[in-house]
Amino acid sequence: MRLYEFVDPEDDNARAASIIAVANQLKQHVDQGKINADDFSLDQLLDYFQKSDIILDPQDLYSMIQKPLLKGVISNIQGDKVVFKGKEEVNTSPQQQDQQQKTVASMAKSALNART
Q: Which residue segment(s) compose the domain that 29 sits in?
């Protein structure tokens, strides 16, 4: 007998609903500042789900952040750090900033020349 034969599809739907509910609660806690989104680890995320009787392993989370279950809450897991949506760090080097400023200046100059 195969493992999928033991799984009740209704239980799978109930588990997905539980995960979605906990993910929504997690998003609310992040938005309200109850959870420090800047310093939230993978272990803390696993514990958060475990408190709601949802046992996951890191591999489950990696696949779940690519799907609608957690895609709207977590943007990435970088090593041991969880990166929430809207809390992503934008790292631009001074060279990138200079190039961006040059591009904007060029676009502004082109726009002024087009008007005259």
A: 3-90
Task: Please choose, from the candidates 68, 82, 57, the residue with its C-alpha nearest in 3D space to the C-alpha of residue 24.
Answer: 68
Residue 52 contacts by C-beta under 8 Å, 6 or more apart in sequence?
A: 18, 21, 22
The two three-digit tokens of residue 57, written as one number? 């392993």
Task: Count CB-CB contacts under 10 A for residue 7.
Answer: 11
Reported as a single tens digit per residue, the pLDDT across 64-110 is 888 877 888 888 888 889 888 877 655 555 676 677 777 767 766 77
* Domains in the chain, number: 1
How much is the pTM?
Answer: 0.63
Q: Specify if 75 maps to a domain.
A: yes
Mark residue 81 as left, alpha or beta (left: phi above 0; alpha: psi -120 to 50; beta: remaining).
Answer: beta
Domain-located, residue 110? no
